[in-house]
């Protein structure tokens, strides 16, 4: 009996001990289950994010993303599908930055056919990281050999549309020159993605749809049946709309010929006779000799040492690089830093100084012209102007002329004549995994260029003759045109395009930038350079910050409509006539301030990278 009682007592004690130990064991089991569940949830979330952002080894960022950051390389163009084409060349094919730029630009010419293409021209800035040298390709269109300075005096419509407005295209020669020197993949491989897109179709982008509607509204398209046919959706028999599938088999065949024959097929081969016939039927004067004699100089870019141990590269005349560098030369002496945006008063002053630098730079632009085919005296004059605007002494002279409290009437800036407006473009920026960089700006000038579309080639031809000045034609301010930019046989018109690359003291590219948008290209490129490299903003914040433009005439400070009232009021108090706009230029930019952290952006478009 006593033994039984003792056993019962022992069992009860054991149960108590078990209950005591069971509680922590239960907690431990629950804790393990919770941790496992959390781990699985985190893993699923990570995989979900990767599925959304990783496509064939790339990280794709749309304009709705907060910021695009890459580790090795990036391609920033004006259209999603083409940025992906360029990234595939780098990541999948092992191509160079130039290979990627070529493939991307050919694609842009197809997809953004309202503003770019092989019927136009381009400027290139290329940086070779290994040699630490920069180069430029000046593929600006040229006036036909039969051109004269007075050919449009009594026909200002013909300079904007039709065959007579077409200058000899330079785009294909630029692609060829770049590939000959820096290409690694076979030339034909770089055309295949675009040929496939042209044959199988691509979605029409909103920018092109808007361009179509603008030309429908002004009645232009009805005068050009081949352009009209290109812009009508055969499935609906109405104008193409955003998102609808566009095919261009005619252009695909032309691209296939260029892929097979190289630049020779365009300038002295299978396509040349057809292009001359197409242009002559449209009233043009370009001959086979014009095509055969065309060349795109491969040369050194202009460069400038900037505050912060930086060196900036941009093309020489007839590009806008001279004007853009002059702006940076003036601003560099202010030793700008994040402190200059630290409060309202300092921010207003910083914006004011930028506007004043813009105005002085555009006064110089009115004196510039292309040295092609000009007299030795003219060439010497241009060379001296370029030396002046890139000298630190000239920058200091202008800073002494700038008042921090007020602006001045436009006559005070020593401009010679009015600024000839240029038009829409496309910008491409590439940073390769080995540190090579490419910045390209390409254009056919106005929306759909000359409006002449080759019925056999599918090429939309430029209206680059409109970038020349016309004798005897004054602007709305009664100011005479610039004699430095008059038409001359074989001459290239002045341009605002200024593709730019900035490197640090070690020779590493830190910024690849440029813009589309006519005369606002130079000011936007300089503004973004200042914002990112001096004023401490990353690429997307720099593009999102209120932007400004001034070209001296019209005498108004153009400000993006996201500017706060205090900034607008501050500029007005300094005497600026402010004009708000929702349509500034459209830049692309890649910023790398430390290894493995690449920031890229292209407002409203898409950037790509890995």
From TrEMBL:
The gene is ORF126373. Coiled coil: none annotated. GO terms for cellular component: plasma membrane. It comes from the Eukaryota. The lineage of its organism: Eukaryota, Metazoa, Spiralia, Lophotrochozoa, Mollusca. Keywords: Acyltransferase, Glycoprotein, Hemostasis impairing toxin, Hydrolase, Membrane, Platelet aggregation activating toxin, Protease, Toxin, Transferase, Transmembrane, Transmembrane helix. Gene3D superfamilies: 1.10.246.130, 3.60.20.40. This is Gamma-glutamyltransferase. The keyword Glycoprotein applies. It comes from Arion vulgaris. One of its GO terms (molecular function) is acyltransferase activity. GO terms for biological process: glutathione catabolic process; proteolysis. The chain crosses the membrane at residues 26-49. L-glutamate binds at residues 140, 443-445, 467, 495-496, 518. The active site is at 425 (nucleophile).
């Amino acid at each position: 009996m006593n033994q039984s009682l003792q056993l019962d007592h022992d069992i009860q004690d054991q149960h108590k001990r078990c209950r005591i130990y069971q509680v922590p064991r239960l907690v431990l089991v629950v804790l393990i289950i919770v941790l496992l569940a959390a781990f699985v949830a985190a893993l699923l979330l990570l995989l979900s994010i990767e599925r959304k952002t990783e496509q064939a080894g790339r990280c794709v960022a749309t304009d709705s993303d907060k910021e695009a950051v890459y580790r090795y390389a990036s391609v920033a163009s004006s259209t999603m599908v083409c940025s992906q084409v360029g990234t595939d060349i780098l990541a999948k094919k092992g191509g160079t930055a130039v290979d990627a730029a070529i493939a991307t630009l050919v694609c842009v010419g197809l997809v953004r056919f309202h503003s770019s293409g092989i019927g136009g021209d381009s400027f290139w800035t290329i940086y070779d990281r290994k040699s630490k040298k920069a180069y430029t390709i000046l593929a600006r269109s040229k006036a036909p050999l039969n051109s004269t300075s007075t050919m449009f005096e009594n026909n200002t419509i013909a300079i904007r549309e039709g065959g007579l407005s077409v200058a000899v295209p330079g785009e294909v020669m630029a692609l060829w020159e770049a590939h000959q020197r820096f290409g690694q993949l076979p030339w034909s491989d770089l055309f295949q993605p675009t040929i496939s897109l042209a044959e199988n179709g691509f979605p029409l982008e909103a920018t092109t749809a808007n361009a179509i509607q603008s030309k429908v509204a002004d009645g232009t398209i009805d005068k050009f049946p081949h352009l009209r046919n290109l812009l009508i959706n055969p499935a609906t028999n109405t104008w193409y709309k955003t998102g609808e599938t566009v095919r261009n088999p005619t252009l695909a065949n032309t691209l296939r010929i260029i892929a097979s024959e190289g630049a020779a097929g365009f300038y002295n081969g299978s396509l040349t006779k057809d292009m001359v016939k197409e242009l002559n039927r449209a009233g043009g004067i370009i001959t086979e000799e014009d095509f055969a004699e065309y060349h795109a100089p491969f040369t050194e870019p202009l460069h400038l040492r900037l505050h912060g141990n930086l060196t900036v590269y941009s093309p020489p005349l007839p590009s806008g690089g001279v004007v853009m560098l002059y702006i940076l030369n003036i601003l560099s002496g202010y030793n700008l830093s994040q402190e200059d945006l630290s409060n309202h008063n300092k921010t207003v002053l910083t914006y004011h100084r930028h506007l004043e630098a813009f105005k002085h730079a555009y006064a110089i632009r009115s004196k510039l012209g292309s040295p092609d085919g000009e007299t030795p005296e003219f060439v010497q004059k241009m060379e001296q102007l370029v030396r002046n605007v890139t000298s630190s002494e000239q920058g200091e002279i202008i800073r002494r002329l700038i008042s921090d409290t007020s602006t001045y009437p436009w006559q005070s800036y020593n401009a010679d004549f009015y600024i000839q407006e240029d038009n829409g473009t496309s910008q491409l920026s590439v940073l390769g995994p080995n540190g090579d960089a490419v910045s390209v700006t390409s254009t056919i000038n106005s929306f759909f260029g000359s409006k002449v579309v080759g019925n056999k080639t599918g090429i939309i031809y430029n209206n680059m003759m409109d970038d020349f000045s016309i004798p005897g034609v004054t602007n709305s301010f009664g100011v005479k045109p610039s004699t430095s930019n008059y038409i001359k046989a074989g001459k290239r018109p002045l341009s605002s395009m200024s593709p730019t690359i900035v490197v640090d003291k070690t020779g590493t590219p830190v910024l690849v930038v440029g813009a589309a948008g006519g005369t606002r290209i130079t000011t936007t490129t300089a503004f973004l350079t200042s914002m990112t490299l001096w004023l401490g903003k990353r690429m997307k914040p720099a593009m999102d910050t209120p932007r400004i433009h001034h070209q001296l005439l019209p005498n108004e400070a153009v400000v993006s409509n996201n500017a706060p009232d205090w900034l607008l009021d501050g500029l007005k108090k300094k005497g600026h006539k402010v004009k708000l706009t929702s349509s500034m230029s459209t830049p692309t930019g890649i910023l790398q301030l430390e290894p493995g952290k690449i920031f890229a952006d292209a407002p409203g478009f898409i950037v790509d990278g890995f």
